[in-house]
Amino acid sequence: MLKLYNTLSRKIEEVPQKDHINLYTCGPTVYNYAHIGNLRSYIMADLLYRTLKYDGYKPKWVMNITDIDDKTIKGAITKFGNKATVENLREFTQFYLDEFLKDLSEVNVVSSEDYQIYQPGQALDFSKKLIFIRVTDVIKETQDFIVELINKGYAYKADDGSTYFSIEKYQKGFDDYGALVGEKFIEGKKVGARVAVDEYEKDNLSDFALWKAWDEASDAQIFWDHSTLGKGRPGWHIECSVINKIGFNGEPTDIHTGGVDLIFPHHTNEIAQSQALFGKGNFVHHWFHSEHLLVDGKKMSKSAGNFYVLKDLKPINSYHLDKYQPYALRYLFLQAHYRVQQNFTQKSLDASHNGLLGLIVSAHKDGVISDLRLVGLDNDLNSPLAISENKPSEILEALIGISVKSMIDPNRLVSDDELSADIKSLKKERETAKNQKDFKKSDELRKQIEDLGYEVMDTPEGQKVKKKLQI
Ligand SMILES: [Zn+2]
Questions:
Q1: What is the CA(26)–ligand 1 centre distance, in A?
Q2: pTM over 0.70
Q3: What distance in angstroms lies between residue 312's CA and the mean position of ligand 1's atoms?
Q4: In degrees, to the nearest 5, what angle opens at C-alpha 113 toward C-alphas 246 and 95?
């Protein structure tokens, strides 16, 4: 039985076993590359997914892709000019969506064969690990959701042409706005003001935009038309209420994940919108939030010069590093509990890289494990404990997602007959260098062989060549 901390109740609670678990993760805004702090929260969501599977639950995992908001529109206009259209916006966001998917695959969250990107009218395929839903693919469902909120009296169209969610009306029926932040969140705050931008601070508690009226100066030609709502586009928060509903076919969400920075306003507003339509307690049972990642002891920001995306990480000058570096990042993240702030430094990544190589060497010696038994994860995903208590091969398989079986494949050994002429001649040259005790040359030749995709080992019977480790 998995026990998890629930941000809403502020308690560690059991996740009940049932037919399946609806698992939702707030996805990226695809206007830029994901930074490593974002990746940490997706790796933690993946650790949760893997632990659920390991414990015999059947998770259905859905993630939204924010491809329409203030930032994506701005990006599309910068690229395509002030006549930019919805098609231009799609082209602009597609690039960053593709990059995001590559990043997720690099850190073993989801491989390219194991996800579905929902297309309108298509059935959701839960034989895949993860289903992505783009907001611009569910505009009609979003409009319907907003109209229902208007019909029930929780939303209203204002003078500026935008449609807002009424916190005052919501409070009359539910009296729990902001409960995710804290019990007394709303106390002493004035309600009734309005905010049109997607991101805002706690002090500015306001009715937020569900449908933002089109403004040619800031939106170019990016808008959708609707008989009740008028020309415009969705505000940021409504999308996740809509996509939870579509993804789980109207069933409540069992676990909803995201970074702590999403607790307010995003998740707070999701709860209000969804409960307004489905009733109290019928939206999300369990809120899972991972903490911030600091870089060099500070909050990551472009102006502070400590903003890293995956491709910025400095390569470590070490043996077959290209493949291992994203895994080293994943391993580094798992060495801290998800509810603790972690401080990233280049030094900590280097140490994690070396630690990972050590695990791989030990796992080679252990051989394949027939029955994976993990300690630590069931207790609120205690990954540091799992790393200290389990065997190297178990850590690699269950936490990092590296298949130990594929690493110790005996087929990697290559006989002399199968070697190409290049490698045969390098091997021969190296034999000569070794006999002459020219170790510098022998090392250089080893490196050349490695660059061709092979490893050379010195054994009592002479040099043996293996295919380089592929994981
Ligand atoms: Zn969300």
A1: 4
A2: yes
A3: 26
A4: 75
Distance between Cα 239 and ligand 1 center (Å): 7
Cα 147 to ligand 1 centre (Å): 20
Residue with tokens 């231009």: 88
Q: What is the per-residue pLDDT across 164-196, written as a single tens digit (0 to 9) for each?
A: 999 999 999 999 999 999 988 888 777 767 877
What are the domain boundaries of the chain? 3-138+234-290, 143-210, 303-407, 410-467
Gap from CA of 133 to ligand 1 centroid (Å)? 11
How far is the C-alpha of 174 from the C-alpha of 253, rounded, in Å?
Answer: 19
Instruction: Give 365-375 pLDDT, tens digit per residue.
Output: 666 666 666 78
User: Which residue carries 């990551």 as its tokens?
Assistant: 300
Instruction: For domain 3-138+234-290, give the CATH superfamily.
Output: HUPs (3.40.50.620)
Distance 238 CA to ligand 1 centre (A): 8
Tell me the residues surrounding ligand 1 (ion) with CB < 5 Å.
26, 240
Give the β-pairing of 253-259 and 284-290: parallel
How far is the CA of 205 from the CAs of 188, 269, 274, in angstroms?
11, 11, 18
Q: How far apart are CA 34 and CA 291, in angstroms?
A: 16
Which residues, 6 or more positions from 148, have their beta carbon under 8 angstroms from its beta carbon? 277
Residue 145 bridge partners (DSSP): none
